[in-house]
TrEMBL record:
It comes from Agrobacterium bohemicum. PANTHER family: ADENOSYLMETHIONINE-8-AMINO-7-OXONONANOATE AMINOTRANSFERASE. One of its GO terms (molecular function) is pyridoxal phosphate binding. Keywords: Aminotransferase, Pyridoxal phosphate, Transferase. This is Aminotransferase. It comes from the Bacteria. Its cofactor is pyridoxal 5'-phosphate. GO terms for biological process: biotin biosynthetic process; gamma-aminobutyric acid metabolic process.
């Protein structure tokens, strides 16, 4: 392994502008330089090994350093390193991956459109919702309902559907066509003496009241993640998704399901739609579609959604949208091989088999004096940390996460939650290693504050 000199860190501070950081703070502190990866582990430029407890960014299903993906990328680079899908042209990898996704889809789907990120996919899906409304002559049916704490990306439309203030402040978002309904996290927003069933009823009432207040004739679509990932692994209460779909059907509102984090095995089923009985009109996929070895995302749409759009393109003469890298041959070749690996190695089954151990370890750690509660599904979970009385909101989770990194595990703090989403290849022994390190980190924080 080649060790990058420490001077690399200073060069990074000087020239690279990072996403999702306090830029002034980063100028002073710098960050960790990751040099290489192998399986569930990554290594920094000083040779320290970490368990990647968030699979990069919720995404590296098959682990780091998978030789089959490297070889497929190399072979495709030699054969056809780039071509587009504009103007009636295409190529083999995008055709094969589209066919595979249609066959895998949790509900009948008609077409697949490729983009390069979850943000791009959600943004385009929103444009397509508006395009479809125009095609049907519903010129006023353009509003989109997102959810408080929902996350769908950071482009202008996707960032507007997102329900996180940090993605809105100083960006002049959200757009005025975007409205947000209540966050269905019982652990955070359940009222005193309110049962989970009553909480679900209140969440559904909030949604229907919002639709009526805005005017059903103006609301085109509802956006939701089966489990709200970047909001802090927020679980839907019992009966929530069944009730949401009933309301949307009542008012003829499209359902767009964002499985950018949940898709391809994370919840113990190939899709979280299967876990929660969701039947989307549009399904947004990314991250684990290629294990993020290449930038790739996909929009799957049913015939109800697609046909009016096709009709409108015929009337206008063209579907006036496209990205240079849509359906990129190397990205789609890697995605195709990645999904074959997930199937051949039964990584979805691995998530299902390890779910009990994964969630039990989290639940046991929730009894720690520093912790509050735990939650999760499959290999997606969070440990809620008790807020510090003498600190800002979120500082407790950040403190534990920093202690955990010293113990050789990378996780992510969201609010007061520490989120875990390890590669799907993780073993039972490695789960214990990860959570043993978390216990040591919790002990260290408790001792430091004693």
């Amino acid at each position: 392994m080649t060790i990058i000199p420490n001077s690399m860190e200073g060069r990074d501070i000087a020239y690279q502008m990072h996403p999702n950081v306090n830029l002034r703070k980063y100028e002073k502190t710098g960050g960790v330089v990751i040099e290489s990866g192998d399986g569930i582990y990554v290594f920094d430029n000083n040779g320290k090994r970490y368990i990647e407890g968030l699979a990069g960014l919720w995404s590296v299903a098959v682990g780091f350093g998978e030789k089959r993906l490297v070889e497929v990328a190399r072979a495709q680079m030699e054969k056809l390193p780039y071509y587009h899908t504009f103007a009636y042209k295409t190529h083999g990898p995008s055709i094969e991956l589209a066919e595979m996704l249609i066959q895998m889809a949790p509900v009948p789907m008609s077409k697949v459109h490729f983009t390069s990120s979850g943000s791009e996919a959600n943004d385009l899906a929103c444009k397509m919702v508006w395009y479809r409304s125009n095609a049907l002559g519903n010129k006023d049916k353009k509003k989109v309902i997102g959810r408080i704490k929902g996350y769908h990306g950071v482009t202008i439309a996707a960032g507007s559907i997102t329900g996180l203030p940090r993605n809105h402040e100083s960006f002049d978002l959200p757009l005025d066509r975007m409205v947000h309904t209540s966050c269905p996290s019982y652990v955070h927003f359940g009222q005193e003496n309110e049962s989970e069933a009553d909480f679900t009823t209140r969440m559904l009432t909030d949604l229907e009241d919002l639709i009526i207040r805005e005017g059903p004739e103006t609301v085109a679509a509802f956006w939701g993640e089966p489990v709200m990932g970047a909001g802090g692994v927020l679980m839907p209460p019992e009966g929530y998704w069944e009730g949401v779909q009933k309301i949307l059907r009542k008012y003829d509102i499209l359902l767009v399901v964002d499985e950018v984090i949940c898709g391809f095995g994370r919840t113990g089923n190939m899709f979280a739609c299967q876990t929660y009985g969701i039947e989307p009109d549009v399904l947004i996929l990314s991250k684990q579609i290629s294990s993020s070895y290449m930038p790739l995302s996909a929009i799957l749409m049913n015939d109800r959604f697609y046909q009016p759009i096709a009709d409108e393109s015929d009337r206008i003469g063209v579907f006036g949208h496209g990205f240079t890298a849509s359906g990129h041959p190397v990205a789609t070749a890697v995605g195709l091989e990645n999904l074959k690996i997930i199937q051949e190695r039964d990584l979805v089954g691995n998530a299902a088999r390890l779910e009990e151990q994964f969630l039990s370890r989290l639940a046991e750690l929730a009894k720690h004096p520093v912790a509050h509660s735990s939650r999760g599904v499959g290999l997606l979970g969070a440990l809620e940390i008790k807020p510090f009385d003498d600190a800002k909101a979120g500082d407790a989770a950040l403190t534990v996460t920093a202690a955990l990194e010293k113990e050789g595990v990378i996780a992510r703090a969201v609010g007061e939650a520490i989120c875990f989403c390890p590669p799907l290849i993780i073993t039972s022994e490695q789960i214990d290693d990860m959570f043993d390190a978390l216990e040591r980190a919790l002990d260290a924080v408790a001792a430091a504050r004693a």
